[in-house]
Amino acid sequence: MDAAAAARRLRAFKRWMRARGVVCSDALRLDASDPLGVHVRAVAPIREGDLVATIPRGACLTPRTTGAAGAIEAAELGGCLALAVAVMYERARGGDSPWDAYLQLLPDRESVPLVWPADEAERLLAGTELDKIVKQDREFLCEDWKECIEPLISSGELDVHPDDFSLDKYFSAKTLVSSRSFQIDDYHGFGMVPLADLFNHKTDGEHVHFTSASDDSDSDGEDDDEQSDASADDQSTIENPTNSPSGSRVDDEDLEMIVVRDANEGEEVYNTYGTMGNAALLHRYGFTELDNQYDIVNIDLAMVTKWCTSIFSSRHARARVSLWRNLGYSGCTSQDAEYFEISYDGEPQLELLILLYIITLKPDVYDKLICVARDLVGDEEHDTIHNVVKFVNGTSSTPNSKLNGHDELHDVMKKFLHSESICSALLSLADMRESLYGSNTLEDDEEKLQACCIVTERKLYHSLVLRVSERRILCRLRKYASSRSKTKKRKHP
Question: What start-end ranges are recorded for coiled-coil regions in this protein (predicted)?
Answer without folding.
Answer: none
